[in-house]
């Protein structure tokens, strides 16, 4: 007999998504946010922060491949990569697979996300012990300010723009990211749902356009995120993701991302393209 326990994310004032829970694995109030790990019937083990879905065993590969590999395969030599946030370790797992990456630094403000992910989501948090990886439990905003001209690729793997992640959506932060990148660096930020968060996407795009010469939106299908369609914003000092030679795209044993997806992700449906008009 199935459990009668459900966990619900209130995505807007008028929209919610619920998951039937087999078992609550862990729950605590960290120094920064409420953290819960549950095992669900439909999506397996899931991580929630402040009652919002962060990742699930069933669909996590889409988000983690798409936030990392598009930029890594756009940059011709992504030797030094930084992830701000991303304490579940999924982006790091994908980064270290890329043959040109020499160092992968993770800066996560909430160390409990890292530790509980290692314990309950080992498939996702699988690369923290990789020799390429350095893990820092620290403020990503401060780290960016203190490390100029250091990284080839910076990924902003943040939670929603509330609580501890608010500063990761600010124009001043993007300026500091620009300075932390090398002369041909690339950044990618998760930028929420094109159905539900059009003003946010437009604001991120406009802020980055004042800083970077090239800014582009791309999309991926992630069932557990609001509306199932998610966006990422790429900003580049030099390299255009749509002008990559397909033969240069590394094969890193992916489940969602491939050479065709790399280019197709930038082909926006009309309603999404109209966000920028």
Q: What does the model show?
A:
This protein has eight helices and twelve strands. It has 277 residues and is α/β, with parallel strands linked by helices. It folds into two domains: 6-56, Spermidine Synthase, Chain: A, domain 2 (Roll); 60-276, 3-Layer(aba) Sandwich (Rossmann fold), CATH 3.40.50.150. The strands form two sheets. A seven-stranded mixed β-sheet has the order 8-7-6-9-10-12-11, with helices on both faces. A hairpin with a 3-residue loop joins strand 3 and strand 4 (44-49). Helix 4 (140-146) crosses helix 5. The termini are far apart. Pathway: Amine and polyamine biosynthesis; spermidine biosynthesis; spermidine from putrescine: step 1/1. Catalyzes the irreversible transfer of a propylamine group from the amino donor S-adenosylmethioninamine (decarboxy-AdoMet) to putrescine (1,4-diaminobutane) to yield spermidine. One of its GO terms (biological process) is spermidine biosynthetic process. It is an enzyme of class 2 (transferase).
